[in-house]
Amino acid sequence: QLQASGGGSAQAGDSLGLSCTASGRTFRGYTTGWFRQAPGKEREFVATIKWNGGHTYYADSLRGRFTISRDIAKNTIYLQMNNLKPEDTAVYYCAAGGSIILSNIRNRQAYDHWGQGTLVTVSS
Q1: Residue ranges for the chain with pLDDT beneath 70
Q2: By C-alpha distance, which of 89, 87, 88, 96 is closest to 115?
Q3: Cα separation, 61 vs 79, whole angstroms
Q4: What is the pLDDT of residues 77-89, one digit of tens each?
């Protein structure tokens, strides 16, 4: 089970950090990441990190503002969001999947474990 936390309200330009911890399992060997779903929109890829090796991948539009990282000892992944914009308002979901090939990194259907989501609201 994945447990996400850290959402909340922010003003444009603020920073927020999210975390996601796996209980009852290890992230070892998994591809872990974040997706988000804004009201009325489809769930979209945000960022992902390969647990083994730490390689990171980002949505092109978010690279430079968002940073994904992991803490192996804590079995936790993080998403640091800087310079937030109102369009970043969404429910953010952490996800994990095994044996995801590079071409499927951004495909939400490749991930088979999901957290419950945490709401981030950014006001202008």
Answers
A1: none
A2: 96
A3: 15
A4: 999 999 999 999 9
